[in-house]
Amino acid sequence: MKFHPPLIGVTTSIQNKTNDYCLRHEYITAIRLAGGLPMLIPPGEPNLNSILEWVDGILFSGGGDLDPATYNGAEHPEIYNVNKERDRFELSLAKLALETDIPILGICRGLEILVVASGGKLVPHLPDEFGEKIIHRQAQSCPAEHKVQIIPGTHLANIMGVEETKVVSWHHQAASNIPKGWRLAAKAADGVIEALEHQNHPWAFAIQWHPEISLNDARQQRIFRTFIHTAEQRQMMLSQKAS
Q: What predicted TM-score, i.e. pTM, was given to this entire model?
């Protein structure tokens, strides 16, 4: 039986001024290097079940902030690029995906989507609560680098093979709590939640930093390789059951 490369659905953003669907190229490169076949999923698709029937894995990508109303949060002047259509679509897709066994990877905003979809809340603006001991972004359009501590004994620690690593960081929000069903997998020195992994789902990880920008780092590549490998194994299992 011949199998195609695992088909990975990747969410996209919407440019509010032009209505163009957008995605940074690093996500596509990371998936391809790991052996996956990327498929872009723009907001607004009404049949979410069809998406999950076609793809072998879901990657919730980065982008603008979530509407504070989605987590009963307060407005903040630093909140930017809110798109309610994208919020509705991705939150619905995340809730549905978490009820299946499909491999899930959330990156930056993707972590925040998975947190809110699981009943968690967000910190509206990190400097207000955590100060600037650790710079999580230089400016709205400029990433930063800092170290994170990987929690020993977690699946993420097993994947990356280290307990500390330098990451590319590009966010001003983060999870304010660990929602039900998840556990802490990594944190920054200032206490900001940097990664979560699901305790019940077969393979669901939420990463606050941007591993797709660090493709020269073998430790970051392992996140994508494991994601794609898990999607491939699931694809093969479902094909065997159907035959």
A: 0.97
The answer to whether 142 is a known catalytic residue is: no
Of 136, 146, 198, 210, the catalytic one is 210
Q: What does each of the 243 residues of the chain score in pLDDT, given as a tens digit?
A: 557 899 999 999 987 678 899 999 999 999 999 999 999 999 999 999 999 999 999 999 999 999 999 999 999 999 999 999 999 999 999 999 999 999 999 999 999 999 999 999 999 999 999 999 999 998 767 899 999 999 999 999 999 999 999 999 999 999 999 999 999 999 999 999 999 999 999 999 999 999 999 989 999 999 999 999 999 999 999 988 887
- Residues composing the chain: 243
Q: Residue 3 corresponds to which tokens in the numbers above?
A: 């199998």
Annotated active-site residue in 26, 90, 108, 232? 108
| CA-based R_g, the chain, Å | 17
* Alpha-carbon span 76 to 64, nearest angstrom: 14
Q: Is 229 a catalytic residue?
A: no
C-beta of residue 197 within 8 angstroms of C-beta of residue 151:
no
Active site residue 4: no
